[in-house]
Design a protein that fits this description.
With 476 residues, the chain is mostly helical. It contains 21 helices and 2 strands.
């Protein structure tokens, strides 16, 4: 992992500290690489939901705008907690992400967008309550559970990176050689700079990799600048652009999903903090993060947007370079805010081809998986831990990979909605249940590996030898 001792002496040590303002020349590339690694994750879920709901161009622009602005607000709250309570104060980038997408698609199709917003409002309240009482339920989320969930999150993201590298599922050239050429060149640049670069080049590996990837993609006709000229210069989001309706089934469904995504947020916070600061987050920090996520989600619903969570790919960046300065993440948040208020800037960022994003982030997803393993083995990889981990991952990934496995005859629709849309939910629930029903494992220092009966024989021999056999009441 990158530390001040492994990079050039000219790089500011402030980057590796939470407080202080690093030099602009170091700050900009570090902030931009977080933006570029997560930008597609911010706008793509919004675009998918807008397409699913058959929104017009103006409505699509509005939902993307809200996604960018709310991502900025959530990230700022995480760096500078409101009243010291709403936000974690930890190195994490948060915003609209893919975490809620499968559940939102299922609920949106079944209940409609207005009911989706109502359920989002309720889900945000559930998240705040979860954060408020986290200290009472934290026993449900030990390193074994959070490590298992993080591992599943990382593995679940692999197909996302591959879809990007292949050009974006559903596009005319999906899986074509040109997409893979661009994606692999981008990956090679990021990999090379990460492992052989120094200083700012090393820390900004993803940013520079994306820049080179975009340049490589131009001859293939993957960059279309026409949207920049058509975009406006300034725009504010509208309050209540859609009706908000409350459907009990939709609200209950998303309430459960919110708790599971909160487990993911806890996992991402744990991975980020452990990987960059060599400690686990405190109860107060985790509770603050959950409450901020819930508050922003409630705000997002009244603006017709989507909820927020942590960006898994950015956790990988944080763990890889250990840059934890709060102004790096604030800088990324201000870029999101500017992109949301200035459509032209947003249009520039949307020009980045999907193969470039995939090539730049696939190794990051691998880092997330490995960090899940790191947390998982924190208390030792015992047979009990292996059972919880193996069974939970098998259920999570297995159900997610078999489409319709929970949607057969007689199966309630809500089961498929809650458990069949994402690997994270069944994995998290199974890990929590198994961790609480399996008996605790004996401590290694008291495990008896002797054959049956040998312990009693040895004890009696010692008793006879010491003349205390009669006191033991075991021999005549």
């Amino acid at each position: 992992m990158a530390t001040p001792s492994t990079i050039s002496k000219g790089l500011s040590a402030t980057l590796f500290e939470r407080a202080g303002m690093p030099p602009v020349k170091d700050l900009i590339p570090c902030s931009l690489q977080h933006v570029l690694a997560s930008f597609a994750g911010v706008i793509t879920p919004a675009l998918i939901i807008a397409t699913m709901c058959e929104f017009g161009e103006e409505q699509k622009t509005a939902i993307i705008q809200v996604a960018l602005i709310l991502s900025a607000i959530d990230s700022l709250l995480q760096q500078f907690p409101l009243f010291g309570r709403m936000g974690s104060g930890l190195p994490i980038l948060t915003g609209v992400s893919f975490a809620f997408l499968p559940a939102f698609q299922a609920v949106g199709i079944e209940f409609g967008f207005s009911s989706l917003l109502g359920a989002e409002l309720v889900g945000g309240a559930v998240a705040i309550a979860f954060g408020t009482f986290y200290s009472k339920v934290k026993f449900l989320f030990p390193p074994l559970v959070t490590g298992t969930v993080i591992f599943t999150i990382g593995v679940s993201l692999y197909p996302t990176a591959i879809r990007y590298m292949a050009g974006g599922e559903g596009t005319p050239g999906f899986g074509g050689i040109e997409n893979w050429i661009v994606g692999l060149i981008t990956f090679a640049v990021v990999f090379g700079l990460t492992n052989f670069g120094r200083g700012t080049v090393k820390l900004g590996a993803i940013f520079f990799g994306i820049v080179i990837g975009v340049l490589v993609s131009i001859p293939f006709g993957m960059v279309d600048p026409s949207g920049v000229a058509e975009a406006g210069w300034f725009s504010l989001p509208k309050l209540f652009p859609f009706d908000i309706e409350f459907d009990i089934a939709a609200c209950l469904t998303l309430a459960v999903v919110y708790i599971m995504v909160n487990v993911q947020l806890i996992g991402d916070l744990s991975a980020s903090t452990m990987g960059s600061m060599n400690r686990m987050p405190t109860e107060h920090e985790i509770g603050g993060a959950l409450k901020a996520q819930g508050l922003v989600s409630m705000i997002s619903s009244v603006f017709g947007g989507m909820p927020t969570s942590a960006f898994g790919q950015n956790v990988g960046i944080i763990v890889s370079n250990r840059v934890i300065n709060r102004w790096v993440f604030a800088g990324a948040a201000f870029i999101f805010l500017a992109a949301g208020l200035v459509p032209k800037l947003s249009a520039v960022l949307t020009m980045i081809p999907q193969p470039v994003i995939g090539g730049a982030t696939i190794s990051v997803f691998g880092t997330i998986t490995l960090n899940g393993i790191r947390i998982l083995v924190k208390d030792g990889l015992t047979p009990r831990a292996c059972t919880v981990f193996g069974v939970s991952v098998a259920f999570g990934l297995g159900i997610a990979q078999v489409s319709g496995s929970l949607a057969g005859p007689g199966m309630p629709a809500w089961i498929a909605t809650i458990f069949g849309t994402s690997a994270i939910t069944p994995c998290a629930i199974m890990a929590i249940v198994l961790n609480n029903i399996l008996p605790p494992e004996p401590r290694p220092d008291v495990i008896d590996l002797r054959p049956d009966g040998q312990e009693e024989t040895e004890r009696l021999d010692k008793a006879v030898a010491s003349g205390d056999a009669a006191k033991q009441g075991r021999i005549e």
